[in-house]
């Protein structure tokens, strides 16, 4: 049976104007799970609930075999938030000593290698690092205490494409060893499309879908057609649709079936961004 690094079951959190509603998904060992959703969808609330930073109202969270986050060794989890994770008046050399006393699994050799590899200066204060450097530094730290599960909130937002690509490569490196797993939230869906094994799409506090990425990319499709063809479509098969000028765009879950059934219509693959947009902004026929 597939081993899970993380499992959420019915996690619910009520705020005055927002409810994170019955969230269930899992992160299999050796995989990268991308949590996507627009601003305010509930991604950070989900991640904070997992880390025990926000107290959930109900539901269970099992992390690395334990349903109590306090019982999970801090060595085993790496956390990377958008922004400063560490006292920024210190430099990596000083912080390395701090981490050696915090993490029983701290590996100074890996730390120094990572800093050299990512051109992060040992003697420069973290507060003088650029945003991208801070992010790479946080991930290097997570590698250096050999964490098994890496959780990143908005790891690539606000970074240029080259640094984003480096960070995505770091995450792919991290899971090469099958025991390592990653949960990463982002609203840059193209980044997650490159690296994630599974995509969990959250909208207004609810999960819209949680699926293997390949299934989404290989199976979902968009039918492009005119009004008469749209009227003739089987409405049961339509997930959502949009009308642009004279063209209808229709999201379906089985592209090949649509190609065979509607030979006159154009059916094209859908990327994650398009799938997300259609779910959020598209019209419904049922
Ligand atoms: N401590 C809090 N008290 C009240 N409401 C909160 C609190 N924290 C978050 N919220 C609300 O919960 C909702 C979801 O916020 P959350 O930060 O989880 O979204 P997000 O998907 O991470 O968004 P973004 O991509 O913009 O970071 C928002 O409406 C937010 O205002």
TrEMBL record:
The keyword ATP-binding applies. Coiled coil: none annotated. Keywords: ATP-binding, Nucleotide-binding, Transport. InterPro entries: AAA+_ATPase, ABC_transporter-like_ATP-bd, ABC_transporter-like_CS, ABC_Transporter_VariousFunc, P-loop_NTPase. Pfam families: ABC_tran. One of its GO terms (molecular function) is ATP binding. Gene3D superfamilies: P-loop containing nucleotide triphosphate hydrolases. Residues 6-229 form the ABC transporter domain. This is ABC transporter ATP-binding protein.
């Amino acid at each position: 049976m597939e081993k899970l690094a993380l499992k959420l079951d019915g996690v619910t959190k009520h705020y005055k104007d927002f409810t994170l509603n019955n969230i269930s998904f899992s992160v299999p060992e050796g995989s990268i799970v991308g949590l996507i959703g627009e601003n305010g969808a509930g991604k950070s609330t989900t991640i904070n609930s997992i880390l025990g930073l926000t107290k959930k109202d109900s539901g269970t969270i099992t992390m690395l075999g334990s349903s109590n986050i306090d019982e999970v060794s801090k060595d085993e989890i790496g956390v990377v938030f958008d922004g400063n994770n560490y006292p920024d008046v210190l430099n990596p050399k000083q912080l390395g000593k701090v981490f050696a006393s915090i993490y029983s699994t701290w590996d100074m050799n890996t730390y120094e290698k990572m800093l050299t590899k990512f051109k992060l200066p040992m003697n420069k204060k973290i507060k003088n690092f650029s945003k991208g450097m801070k992010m790479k530094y946080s991930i290097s730290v997570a590698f250096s205490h050999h964490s098994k599960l890496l959780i990143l909130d908005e790891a690539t937002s606000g970074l240029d494409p080259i640094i984003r690509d480096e960070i995505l490569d770091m995450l792919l490196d991290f899971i090469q060893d099958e025991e390592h797993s990653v949960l990463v939230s982002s609203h840059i869906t193209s980044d997650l499309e490159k690296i994630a094994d599974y995509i969990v799409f959250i909208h207004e506090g609810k999960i819209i879908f949680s699926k293997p990425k390949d299934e989404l990319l290989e199976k979902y499709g968009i039918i492009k057609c005119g009004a008469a063809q749209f009227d003739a479509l089987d409405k049961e098969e339509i997930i959502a649709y949009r009308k642009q000028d004279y063209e209808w765009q229709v999201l379906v879950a089985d592209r090949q079936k649509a190609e065979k059934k509607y030979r006159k219509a154009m059916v094209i693959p859908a990327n994650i961004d398009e799938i997300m947009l259609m779910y959020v902004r598209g019209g419904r026929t049922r």
